[in-house]
Amino acid sequence: MSKTILQTSIPGAKVHRGKVRDIYDAGNKLIIAATDRISAFDVVMKNGIPGKGTVLTQISKFWFDFFEDDIESHFITDDVSNYPEPFNEHPDQLEGRSMLVRKTEVLPIECIIRGYITGSGWKDYQKSGKVCGHRLPEGLKECQKLPEPLYTPSTKAEYGKHDENISVEKSAEIIGKEAAEYVSRKSIEIFEKAGRYAADKGIILADTKFEWGRYEGDIILIDEVLTPDSSRFWPGDDYEPGRPQKSFDKQFVRDYLESVDFDKSGEGIELPEDIVSKTSEKYIECFEKLTGKTFSF
To answer: Where is the SAICAR synthetase/ADE2 N-terminal domain (predicted)?
Structure first.
């Protein structure tokens, strides 16, 4: 297994550390570095997942390129030699796992698109027959494909707090009617296009979240895009509605933590090597299936 990077450190640079990413201020731009940290149940574990940060960055870059004719994004380059100083002096920390992006005014909502009924949506449906206020047909099975994708926006919570589902009307109150209509329409469009592409690669895109920001008067796609951390990807050859699905993400970590009765409000713990290894393999498999490229550390 390759060495993991749990934290980047660029001397003299101002940094904000999230659960997984280190974000550096570069004037009117940002450097977003995806570390190998892993969180589950909103708690960051003590050890990381080899290759994870590079997988997240390179999958996002793949999708930014894929959608470049459909939507403008904040992505500029992931070539560290073209970063401003002092970032271009640290390829050992940033190469492959970082990108230079435009600094935007982030819209304070998350645009969640659900193509299948799973997770919290399945729990809501079992109780009320609805998902985030959307009435659905009776008799749906767990993980069944929905008649059409649902747009279910949420708030963007601060680190350590949970996002809250909101209505489309509430999202319009927060960001404005025109902006709310635009991001809902474009989020569904690119979700459907990505879903068709992924299906051709043997992967089901079950759901995802997009984030958007304002840049020079336009609304552009930002943050990570269609990665195993922001989306549910399922192997198509194992899909069967009526039960939970295998997935290309941190499910091994969640399952392990459940098995040891992990305190979901406590501190992170050290993950066993076999859980780390299996999780790394899933992230890498997702990258290789989607991009058609061979992953290298």
So the answer is: 15-260
CATH number of 107-235: 3.30.470.20
Q: How confident is the model at residue 1 (pLDDT cuts 50, 70, 90)?
A: very low
CA 49 vs CA 107, 235, 277, 280, 289: distances in Å: 30, 21, 8, 6, 19
The residue extents of the domains of the chain are: 11-103, 107-235
Contact, 58 vs 96, CB < 8 A? yes
Q: Kindly state the percentage of the chain with pLDDT values over 90.
A: 89
Rounded to an integer, what is the distance from CA 83 to the centroid of its chain? 24
Helix-strand-coil percent breakdown of the chain, rounded to 5? 35, 25, 40
The tokens of 292 are what?
A: 């058609």
- Identify the DSSP state of 172: H
Yes or no: say if 54 and 97 are a contact pair by the CB < 8 Å rule: yes
Q: Which tokens in the block code for residue 89?
A: 């002096």
pLDDT tens column, 25-35? 999 999 999 99
Integer CA distances (angstroms), 103 to 22, 215, 272, 292, in order:
15, 8, 38, 30
The per-residue pLDDT for range 93-118, each reduced to its tens digit, is 999 999 999 999 999 999 999 999 99
Domain at 11-103: CATH code: 3.30.200.20
pLDDT of 159 above 60: no
pTM: 0.94
Which residues are paired to 113 by β-bridges?
151, 208
